[in-house]
Structure formats: C-alpha cells, structure tokens
Amino acid sequence: MIYDNLPLIFAALMGLSILIYVVLDGFDLGVGLLFPFASAEQRDQMVASIGPFWDANETWLVLAVGILLVAFPAAHGAILTALYLPVFLMLVGLILRGVAFEFRTKAPKVQKPMWDAAFFAGSLLASAAQGFMLGIYILGLNFTLWHIGFALLIGALLTIAYSFIGAVWLIGKSEGALLARAITWAQGGIWGAVLGLGAVSVATPFVSARIAEKWLAWPQAAYLAPLPIASAALMGVIYLCLRRLRAAPDAHRQWTPFFATSALFALGFGGMAYSFYPYIVPEKLTIDQAASAPESLIIILWGVAIVLPIIIAYSALSYVIFRGKSRGLRYD
Amino acid sequence: MDTFVLSRIQFAANISFHILFPTITIALGWVLLFFKLRFNATRDPAWMAAYMFWVKVFALSFALGVVSGITMSFQFGTNWPGFMEKVGNVAGPLLAYEVLTAFFLEAAFLGIMLFGASRVAPWVHTSATFLVALGTTMSAFWIIVLNSWMHTPAGYELRDGVVHATDWWAIVFNPSMPYRLIHMLLASGLTVAFLIAGISALRHLWGDRSEEMRKSLRFGVTLGALLIPLQIFAGDMHGLNTLEHQPQKVAAMEANWETGPRVPLILFALPDEAARENRFEIGIPAMASVILKHDPDGVVPGLNDFVAADGTVMHPPVAPVFWSFRVMVGAGFAMLALSWAGVALMRKRGVDGLPRLYLGALAGASFIGWIATLAGWYTTEIGRQPWLVQGVLTTREAVAAVPSGMVLSTLIGYLAIYGALILAYMVTITTLAGKAAKGQPLPAHRPQLVPAE
Q1: I need a labelling partner for A28 at 20 to 30 A (CA). Which of A228, A325, B45, B255 fits?
Q2: In angstroms, rounded to a whole number, what is the distance separating the alpha carbons of residues B369 and B373?
Q3: Yes or no, beta carbons of B100 and A321 under 8 Å apart
Q4: How close A60 gets to chain B, by Cα (Å)?
Q5: Would you place residue B447 in the very low, low, confident or very high pLDDT band (cuts 50, 70, 90)?
Q6: In the predicted model, is pLDDT for residue B20 greater than 90?
C-alpha cells in the first residue's frame, strides 16, 4: 500500500517543504526587502527579529530541492536545466543576503552600509528570481516572449508578497516606532499579495484544457470553490485587522495578520497543487514517471518518518525560545 | 571552451569555495564545546573569552558554508543531471540523510548556540553547542560516504543501465570510506588548529598579552602538534587503500608511467602526457616502491597500463594530480615543522617569550590548512577522472547540454562573488583579531537591540 503510493507521498512531502519554505524564508526575505524603508537603528532591530531563524528557514529549500533530486531525478534535471539562469540569480541572491547577515556587524564599520545594500539586493534578487521561476514553471517551462513577460510579473508580485509577509512578521516582533512602520508597510503591501494570488489564479486555467476543466467544469469547480471563498475571507480578516492595528497598535492581536497571511499562502499553494496533480513538470512528466526506484524511496521514507517530527519539534523549540518581541541579538 | 570543460571548472569552483568553510566549522564546533566545558569546569573567564572570540568566526564560517552549500545542492541538477539519473538510487538516500540528520540539526541549534545564552539554562546552551558540533560532523560523514562510494562503489547492481542499491551496509561502509573520513576529519582539525594558532600569533604580534590569547595560542599549536603525526599516518593508510582500489590515481600521483619494481620517488618532474614521459626528473631510487609496497622490489603500477587498445586514455591527467599531491604533502610537513617547533619553543620560553620570527611564520600559516585540504581534494578528485563514479559513469556522460555561453557567464559570476567573499572573510577575521588585540571589551553590557557582533 505504502509501496504503491511512494511517488505521491514524496510529492506531498516536497510540497510541504516548499510551502514551509515559502512562508518561513518568505518573511525573512521580506524583512530584507523592507530594508531601504527603515532607519539604521530599525535595520538592526529587523535583523534581530530573524537572526536565530533564517538558517533553519533556508534549510527547507535544501530539503525541497533534495526531495526533488532524490525522489524525482528526471524532473529535477528537466526543471533545473530549463531554469538555469534564474536559479543562478536566486543563488547569488541567497549568497549575498546570507553572508551580509554576518558581515554587516563583523566587518570593519565603514563597510556596514555596503553590506546593508547587499542584504537588500540579495533579498530582492532571490525573491524576484523565485517568482520568475514560479511563473515559468506554471506555464510549462516555455520561454516565449509572453511567457517571460508573465513570469516577470509574477516575480514582481511575489516580491511584494514576500515584503508583505515580512511586514506582518515584524508587526508581531516589534514595538514602538518600528511597529508603526511595519503596519504602514503591511497596508501598502497587501495589494501585492492579492494581485499575485489573483494573477496566478487567472493564468492557471489557460495552461491546459485539462486544468481548465478542473477549474471551470461542473462538478469539479465545486471542489475548488472553498479555496477562493476562504482566500477572500482571509484577505478581509487581514485588511480589517491592519486597520484596527493602525488605530491602536498595541491593543490588538498582533500575530493575527501573520498567521492569516501564512494560511493565505497555504491556500494558494494548495490550489496550485490541486491543479497540477498528477504532473510534476506541468503537462509533460507525471510524478509516477519521474520517481526513483521504490527500494530507494522506502529507505528515505523511513528516515523522514523518524526524523521529520524531531526536526519540526526542535524548530518549534527555537521559535519558543526566541518568542515575543525581539530583543537585541547578543552572543552572551 | 566547451560546456563539459566549463561545467567541470564551475563545479570545481563551487565545491572548492564551499569546502573551505565546513573544513573550519566541523572541527571548530568541537573546539568551541571544549572551550565551553573548560569554562564550566574552571570558571576561568579566559576560556569564555576564547569561546566568545571563536564563536564569531564560527558564525561567519557557518553562514558562508550554508549559502555555498545551497549552491551545491542545485549544481547537481543544473549542470550534472546524468549523475542522479544513473546513480540517484544510491546518491539520493545518502544526500537525503545528510539533510535530515545534519542540516536541520545544526541550523536550528545554531540559533540557540549563538543568541540563546541569556535565554536558556547553561546546560541547554552547552547541549546546543554539542548538537551543532554533532550536526557538522554528521554532515561530513554522509557526504564522505557518498564521495567515497563514487571512488570505490559497492553494494549495487546495474538494471537497464541504472544503478540500484542491493546492500546499504556495503554502500555506506564502502572500502575507501573509513580512510577518507578520518583523513578529512583530521584535515579539519589541523585547519582549525593552525587558524587558531595563527590568529592568536597575530594578536600576540599586535601587543595582545591577554590570558585568552595565551590559552588560544597554546591550544592551537598543541592541537596541531598532536594531530599532524596522526594525519601523516592516516594519509599513508589512505594512499595504500587508493593503491588497492584506484591504482591509476596513485600512478598519476607518482608520475610513474611503467609498471615495475624499484620505482623511484620523484621529487620534481614535469610530466609530459603527449610524450608519455617525465622531463627534468629528480627522484630517489626505489623509494616509491618502499613507500607503497614497503619493499624496494615491490611492483608499482604505471600509467601505461591504463590506455585502452584503441588509444583511449583511462587514467587521470598526470600533472595536476602529481602537483596537487606534492603541495598537500609539502603543506603537511610545514605544519609538522611549525607545530613541533612551537611546542619546543613554548616549553623553553613560554608563550610570551616566543620569537617574533616564529610568530610571524605562524600568523602567515593561518590558512595553511585550506591549502592542504584543497590540494588533497584536487589529488583525489582529479585522480578519479575520467570517471565520475569509478567504473560506472564517466564525467562526460553526466554533463547537462546547457549552452556553453550560459555556463561561462554564470562561472564568471560565481568566481567574482567567491573571490570577493574570501577576501571579505579574511579581512573580517583580521579585523576581529585587531579589535581583540586592542582589548576592546567583548560583548558584555551593550545597549539592547544591537545585533550580535
């Protein structure tokens, strides 16, 4: 039973990893994207809010790519060679922001503005490249002018969406002037998240007749209907919550926007997974066709079953230890 | 240049840059645990000060290791899809176990180790330090397992041209794994020993006379002096293992063309692959036979045995393997001389009485471990060519058909970034040493909301 469903199980695990990555690294990339709008002192506070987490957040990307690599080697090669340049740009972005984290406080003081700029540029490059890859991927890895144009649009919208989840993260983590700024940023960025989700949703049915039928034909459309309805409700919640926070920043539930946004990301992601199933390379390669040999998958599955709960437990432990408003980052 | 050559250069550039940082963090994690435990036991603030100084170097090295490691995880797919398509059933689970058992462990507990000292109980903080060190070592274990399997594959069968695992025990404990793992862990220990000794010597030269500097310098030199004989022994064992399983690599290391007894140990030569002979050869008669077979009449394999009847060369390029091997061995003997001289000098004169010339040499050798490690990896990896997986998959079969211009442009991008980052890394460590030497107080009571320095 498990044996027959291994490709599906691994596709689900990979999807889960990507979703966790998009939410977790989404907020810390977003914090980097907001750097130009913050004062020098606020930048230190912003970095302090993500310092203990960013490393582990990025590891979910390694896990997602790792599962793609080990469970679906054929898809891994097809997707990554097609996305050669955007992958390179994303990696450059991740390298720049990862090292800027350390260098901005440890390198000679005169270099700090330079590393701050690298932190922002790296976050921008990584976010835009991820959005671009998402756009190219959902349209089936084609590179005509109109595909590239759409992918650039998704790149811009995902960047705004990341800066939005970064802002709502900061609402939970900050106080005083930075809290007020974060609320302003969130109110300014929510449209990016809405438009991004909308653009992907509008484009997806056009990818193929098969997906269009899933979306628009009766009764399949009914299965999908809860997604847009719940998404709209969440957007309403976030919008109202931000308005009330604006009026009384300290009085309201400050984590609601972050959790509601995470749920919104999850819904959008779930909709995509539903649309593309059973394909791993849209309309070209199914998860069964791309999967590795079952005897290798089963040995990984054992490891995953034992280790993944432990990973989630100690990741949660880290969030508990560093809960609450962020204090300064200190080694002692 | 064609896509194949450029892709190889790009992979070499990426992995060379990457390995620099794990080489430091693997052993430095355990060193930090040692400093912390010494502090717990003695309550001597100098141990805590040493911990505080080196934990910054650890954090910086770790960040560089993480970001360059993410790049590595994508390189397989972007440039070498043939690798996973052919041997993915073996390589996949090994890489998965690395991510699952090591990456998350080190990443999650690093946050607690770096920033949690004031938020958790002391034993939790010490445990976090232990778990980070364990994570880096587990990561080294899995990646060495995979790399060793590529040199000495075992426990598999070919079905329809694809590798399938038959015996996981044989795969994990493949013939070269224990030797390579020990050799690499010792290399990491030596790299860290000389980094600590060298940076402490630099602080000494800049007038630092703190107890922390003394303890660190003594620790670094002593650790180096203890590990280097072990490393020379382990390296010799590893070489004998290679002779058994990959004789063509040893033949290239020794630049020995003809199989036979009484093979000289060549000290200098310019191997000429077109003429299939050495120019300007200087050697010690029969010495290679003695080293490799422990007998002057021992028969040592030569490169000419590895040319197919149709003239296809199935041995690695000779000159790079020959030279990298000599650079590694030379660096090893320099480490032996430096650390043993240091122990002798410290016994006579103490840390404060060390001569400036010696301190200068030690400071200059701060990164000698990097040179030896890279040279060693070049020896073994170039020495595996033309195979990617010995006897199973050639490197050329695995390369992606990406346009060469694309590979070239990204290669230039990577090289520019890596060059800049190595420079920034060295400047930053020197800056930290300068700050410490000037006696700037280590973080004690600073205003809140300042990121860790």
Answers
A1: A228
A2: 6
A3: no
A4: 8
A5: very low
A6: yes
